């Protein structure tokens, strides 16, 4: 099978297209012939081993994971033993958060893992929505009906997902974006949209239960005027000068937990939940552009610019 592979850390240029043996499903697994995947921040960071201490998990000197890609969508083409959840020919989507492998023509995943049938007749390239949504869900789970949430950077894969997941939980949502994304945030259901290019979002005279930095470009101290007395600043990034991780450790010790980096959990349960939201129309992917697998280097280069709107899709088959 064709796959994008690397045997060292570095810039996108270290990725090469190669041929690998087709994997065979083990007991309890299904093999998916992949039609679409994504290139996201996790892929680019893993390729560069950023931050450096991530090497403790991904490989000290060389990457343990040779083929990246957490999202996948395709068709089940082979079943392992004792699989009753899926049939050959099922159209499926999901996540491979532990082993990646989406940037290849075939991938084996546990049948009871983070995989679900594609709702309705959605095309494959519109169902690779899991990675950004999964990271956003860690913060969305802090919310319940009637709570107030501000999403800073509500135009990327994580931010657009955060707006929708928060609304699905019944929260009041303010989206902070640049001029060209104002209409998008309104379409996704934000109750108020603040254009940070036209006004200071920290001076809007509203207080929030949760302020979520979805892009790693602001800080707790900058956003503190927006927080209620018991409000939480949540982020998906280490923050300027690693402030988020340092403050989350400090507030964790004091018991207030005012700064959190909510790590996503239960990928299988979340993918099934996401399938339901997609079925009811409460969640839809926001897509920037699509690249063929042959242009994997260009796809990584584009994502590293940090200017994408929503999801960058990789057409595998």
Automatic annotation (TrEMBL):
It comes from Thalassovita aquimarina. CDD domains: MDR1. Gene3D superfamilies: Medium-chain alcohol dehydrogenases, catalytic domain, NAD(P)-binding Rossmann-like Domain. The lineage of its organism: Bacteria, Pseudomonadati, Pseudomonadota, Alphaproteobacteria, Rhodobacterales. This is NAD(P)-dependent alcohol dehydrogenase. It comes from the Bacteria. Residues 10-314 form the Enoyl reductase (ER) domain. InterPro entries: ADH-like_N, Chloroplast_QOR, ER, GroES-like_sf, NAD(P)-bd_dom_sf. Pfam families: ADH_N (PF08240), ADH_zinc_N_2 (PF13602). SMART domains: PKS_ER.
